[in-house]
Design a protein that fits this description.
Blueprint lengths: L12 E7 L5 E7 L12 E6 L6 H9 L5 H7 L17 E5 L4
Length: 102
């Protein structure tokens, strides 16, 4: 269902049967919950200091070779919103770039 590099690739898809509103039942498929790994136990590949104009996709491409892996940097820095890592008020902040895990 998801690309092999997606943060959801290893999450199981489940089906639940619910009332359909017309007296019958219908199946609804959904992806299970993803638990974010603890940032403090991730292996560190590099440290990046934010400068003006940085974008998380460019940073991720620079270190991991794939801009779509931004979620790994978010996980390693306990960020839910990627934009929170590179905003104007984040200049000078250091980001942990994690070693990609399978």
């Amino acid at each position: 269902m998801f690309d092999s590099t997606s943060r959801y690739a290893s999450i199981a898809t489940t089906t639940i049967r619910i009332p359909d509103g017309a007296g019958g039942l219908r199946d609804v498929r959904y992806v299970g919950r993803r638990f974010v790994p603890r940032a403090d136990v991730m292996r560190q590949l590099a440290i990046h200091s934010i400068v003006q104009g940085d974008r998380i996709d460019n940073i991720t491409n620079q270190y991991l070779g794939d801009p779509t892996q931004f979620w790994r940097v978010c996980d390693a820095n306990s960020a839910l919103n990627p934009a929170d890592l590179t905003g104007e008020d984040e200049i000078g902040r250091t980001l942990v770039i994690p070693v990609p895990q399978a």
